[in-house]
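Try it yourself: sequence plus 3-methyl-2-oxobutanoic acid, in.
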Amino acid sequence: MGAETRKKVTVPAIRDAKGSRRIGMLTAYDYPSARMVDLAGADITLVGDSLGMVVLGYPDTLSVTMDDMLHHTRAVVRGTQSSLVVGDMPYLSYHVSIEESVRNAGAFIRAGAQAVKVEGGKPSRIRVIDAIRDAEIPVMGHIGLTPQSVNDIGGFKVQGKDADAAKRLFDEAAALEEAGCFSLVLECVPAEIAAYITESVKIPTIGIGAGPACDGQVLVYHDILGLFEGFKPKFVRRYASLEGEIVTALSHYLEDVREGRFPDVETESFHVADRAELRALYGEKAPIRVAKG
Ligand code: KIV
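Structure, out:
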């Protein structure tokens, strides 16, 4: 469904979707990607800190700053009409103090996002989320593989594979629901564990590498479109291979320039209509046709 015919998606609408319809979420990082995600009908557009990897070329998300995130969030907001825009709080923006965390969450709202996403569910994180919620800011939780903890976890690995780790995830999910999160991302969690969490909480779960039982799914824009060919995680389904198509298109353009086939003098060039103007400039040598360079 096109964005023109859609109502603005709200936080309560996402909460109410649980049990009645599946939620489709995509990441976007700039004006054109946000427009396309919105036109495609996404319920939620996440300005993910994954932009550190797919847009800025870092090996992980840890170098992404608040300034980076706000810059991209503003562009995404300008490109969005209907989707709910969620800003991903970057590393160290909610780790130093509760006051700084609330201020940073508020900066996303002032940039035009309707909610923020915060990674993790340990007790100190729940206190931060409580304070952000107290400032009337909706929070999306995120547990399982939390990429900002990559050094602690020891790599981008599936989480919750044994009973103890799964139990920790259940407890975190319950604490995040209790803290007032309106939805919960489950990243790289075994399908059985994600299904159990989805059944046990009243807020919608949104899976990425967490199997089909979640209430919604999210994938990274560049992964879906094949714009980032470097690495394809198991859970990614590619719906296009745009990197190859774009490189082919760009190399055809460069070839046309080098071979003098671009621009075409008739269809891709402007002309002086009045020959008197040309004569005023060139005298009697005014060209009748422009020769190729
Ligand atoms: O940064 C991101 O893109 C994310 C999603 C993958 C959930 O956190």
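One thing you can check immediately is this: The mean pLDDT is 95.
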